[in-house]
């Protein structure tokens, strides 16, 4: 169609527009006329209002159209069809697709093949057609995933205009580029990050990707796993993290808008997204994501996974049952995913000072069994978790289950402290019930430490990042309990002997945290080290120990002050390694540096007593 002539006058443009509309009532138009109208609009004619007012029409976000593009379209489509035919021929070769194993473990050999790069086609060519292939992921549309040259797969061939059937899955339109290497990010998660968050069955994950890569919950989970894989680096690539995070959240919202809102993959994705938001200290977003994950867990009834069959399910109408399975690995995957949410909610609540929403008395889920999720997983019958669960020496508690037990103690301690604050505002008898709860919790922590001793050793904390996090956080919970006792004694003006044990426990816990972090502190930072994997969960133990040693330094004698000051100096440096200087944790211990500097000036520099002892030995 020839280009529209430019308007000669405002009146002529107005008449043309009125005639094209067909009067006030409008006119029916066939598909050919509608297509002609669309092409005419691409010429950007002047509208009637601008013509009357003498303004210049503006068209935003629209690329210029040239009729010469239409003449080039058949050649481009022919080249595309030729490339797709060659791709199908390559895929038909015997041995082209690995039969077993994962894509990165074996790459099928293929003949060298080079194809001229297809020039970029203008957006206007497909402007009127639905976008059926524009958002394919690299692991779906790239034959590099199968060890072949970069061509379109047959699945993509069927979607690119060779078939007019619409896609069965909705697509997410995004402006972000795709992450460059999803397979490497998956590998990072399963080989490095997995021990800290072992909630995903690797075999099931890749099977679902291979079976239906365009399923929105599967896509959401794939980007969430890639997001976890991007967190193992010491110097993290924020651009890749932003891409994965952006796409994972978009697909999560797409699942909630469509019929895919109740899916285990979506729940696991929300857990991964929550873990990332806590790592980058986006507490407000994390709190909102946490609420979505908790509600989804209730919809899927994950908090009643091991409820006895004799107990009837609630008659409420919002539960959506997950597919029934007798596979022990699938059931264990669901348990671990729920306990991951339980742990992350505990951390978020402690960080924000807000009560938890998951009510432990209503939870009927066994503790996590040992072993890696996979086809060879064997379930070990573990007890249901209660606040007073009795763990016998024969019970094989993993470090991951230890985190669940530690989180339960942290919730009890936080509830205990909140009750004391509420009691003060209601003005009951002074200290009513506080000390009874305090001694009961102190004994419970001692019992748990004894039961988890296998994971609290120096050897375990060096080899297992989860055991490392368990040790420092369990010490922080104990320190938190005894700090509350010291504050309560000061408010009630009790004699120092009442909290002498609490002061001793606070000092011991703070020094234990310092020595554990010092022992695992990497000499040279590398990807996947303890700080890279657990920086989210060691900020609170660092602050608790810094506060305790800060108070200890102000009351320390000359014989003990050097050791306390040295631990303070080290912990301050460790905090700098996991958070910027203006971060949240730094604000909580802002006075430590001033106190430490003042102490050094008063004692003629850091470590003066140690240097004096060295001089005495050299003289003798």
TrEMBL record:
<dbReference type="GO" id="GO:0006351">
    <property type="term" value="P:DNA-templated transcription"/>
</dbReference>
<dbReference type="Pfam" id="PF00172">
    <property type="entry name" value="Zn_clus"/>
</dbReference>
<feature type="compositionally biased region" description="Polar residues">
    <location>
        <begin position="8"/>
        <end position="17"/>
    </location>
</feature>
<dbReference type="InterPro" id="IPR050815">
    <property type="entry name" value="TF_fung"/>
</dbReference>
<keyword id="KW-0805">Transcription regulation</keyword>
<dbReference type="InterPro" id="IPR036864">
    <property type="entry name" value="Zn2-C6_fun-type_DNA-bd_sf"/>
</dbReference>
<dbReference type="Pfam" id="PF04082">
    <property type="entry name" value="Fungal_trans"/>
</dbReference>
<dbReference type="GO" id="GO:0003677">
    <property type="term" value="F:DNA binding"/>
</dbReference>
<feature type="region of interest" description="Disordered">
    <location>
        <begin position="1"/>
        <end position="25"/>
    </location>
</feature>
<keyword id="KW-0804">Transcription</keyword>
<dbReference type="GO" id="GO:0005634">
    <property type="term" value="C:nucleus"/>
</dbReference>
<keyword id="KW-0539">Nucleus</keyword>
<dbReference type="GO" id="GO:0008270">
    <property type="term" value="F:zinc ion binding"/>
</dbReference>
<keyword id="KW-0238">DNA-binding</keyword>
<protein>
    <recommendedName>
        <fullName>Zn(2)-C6 fungal-type domain-containing protein</fullName>
    </recommendedName>
</protein>
<dbReference type="GO" id="GO:0000981">
    <property type="term" value="F:DNA-binding transcription factor activity, RNA polymerase II-specific"/>
</dbReference>
<dbReference type="InterPro" id="IPR007219">
    <property type="entry name" value="XnlR_reg_dom"/>
</dbReference>
<dbReference type="InterPro" id="IPR001138">
    <property type="entry name" value="Zn2Cys6_DnaBD"/>
</dbReference>
<feature type="domain" description="Zn(2)-C6 fungal-type">
    <location>
        <begin position="29"/>
        <end position="59"/>
    </location>
</feature>
<keyword id="KW-0479">Metal-binding</keyword>
């Amino acid at each position: 169609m020839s280009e529209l002539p430019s308007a000669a006058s405002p009146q002529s443009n107005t008449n043309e527009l009125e005639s094209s509309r067909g009067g006030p009532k409008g006119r029916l138009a066939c598909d050919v006329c509608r297509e002609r109208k669309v092409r005419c609009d691409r010429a950007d004619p002047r509208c009637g209002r601008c013509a009357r007012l003498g303004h210049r029409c503006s068209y935003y976000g629209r690329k210029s159209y040239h009729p010469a593009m239409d003449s080039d379209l058949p050649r481009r489509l022919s080249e595309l069809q030729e490339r797709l035919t060659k791709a199908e021929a390559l895929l038909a070769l015997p041995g082209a697709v690995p039969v077993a194993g994962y894509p990165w473990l074996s790459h099928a050999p293929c003949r060298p093949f080079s194809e001229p790069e297809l020039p970029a086609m203008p957006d206007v060519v497909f402007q009127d057609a639905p976008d059926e292939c524009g958002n394919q992921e690299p692991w779906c549309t790239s034959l590099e995933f199968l060890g072949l040259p970069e061509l379109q797969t047959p699945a993509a061939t069927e979607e690119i205009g060779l078939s007019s059937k619409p896609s069965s899955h909705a697509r997410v339109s995004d402006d972000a580029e795709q992450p460059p290497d999803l397979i490497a990010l998956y590998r990072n998660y399963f080989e490095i990050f997995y021990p800290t968050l072992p909630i995903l069955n690797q075999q099931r994950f890749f099977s679902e990707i291979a079976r239906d890569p365009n399923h929105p919950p599967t896509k959401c989970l794939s980007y969430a796993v890639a997001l976890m894989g991007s967190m193992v680096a010491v110097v993290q690539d924020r651009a890749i993290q932003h891409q994965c995070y952006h796409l994972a959240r978009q697909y999560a919202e797409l699942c909630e808008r469509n019929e895919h809102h109740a899916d285990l993959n979506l729940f696991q994705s929300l857990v991964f997204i929550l873990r990332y938001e806590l790592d980058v200290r986006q507490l407000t977003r994390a709190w909102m994501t946490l609420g979505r994950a908790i509600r989804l867990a209730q919809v899927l009834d994950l908090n009643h996974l091991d409820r006895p069959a004799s107990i009837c399910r609630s008659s409420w109408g919002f539960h959506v049952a997950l597919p029934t399975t007798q596979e022990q690995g699938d059931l264990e995957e669901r348990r671990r995913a729920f306990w991951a949410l339980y742990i992350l909610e505990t951390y978020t609540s402690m960080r924000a000072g807000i009560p938890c929403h998951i009510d432990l008395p209503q939870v009927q889920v066994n503790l996590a069994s040992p072993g890696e999720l996979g086809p060879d997983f064997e379930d070990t019958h573990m007890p249901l978790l209660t606040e007073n669960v009795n763990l016998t020496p024969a019970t094989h508690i993993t470090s991951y289950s230890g985190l669940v037990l530690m989180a339960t103690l942290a919730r009890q301690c936080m509830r205990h402290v909140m009750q004391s604050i509420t009691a003060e505002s209601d003005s009951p008898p002074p200290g009513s019930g506080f000390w009874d709860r305090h001694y009961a919790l102190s004994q419970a922590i001692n019992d748990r430490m004894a039961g988890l001793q296998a994971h609290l050793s120096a050897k375990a904390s060096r080899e297992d990042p989860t055991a490392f996090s368990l040790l420092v956080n369990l010490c922080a919970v104990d320190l938190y309990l005894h700090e509350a006792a010291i504050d309560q004694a000061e408010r009630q003006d009790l004699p120092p002997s009442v909290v002498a044990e609490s002061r001793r426990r606070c000092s011991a816990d703070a020094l234990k945290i310092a020595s554990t972090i010092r022992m695992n502190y990497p000499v040279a930072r590398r990807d996947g080290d303890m700080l890279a994997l657990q920086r989210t969960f060691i900020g609170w133990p660092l602050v608790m120990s810094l506060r305790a040693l800060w108070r200890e330094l102000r009351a320390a004698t000359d014989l003990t002050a050097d050791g306390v000051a040295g631990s303070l100096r080290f912990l301050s440096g460790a905090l700098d390694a996991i958070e910027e200087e203006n971060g949240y944790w730094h604000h909580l211990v802002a006075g430590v540096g001033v106190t430490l500097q003042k102490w050094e000036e008063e004692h003629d520099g850091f470590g003066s007593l140690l240097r004096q002892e060295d001089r005495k030995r050299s003289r003798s």
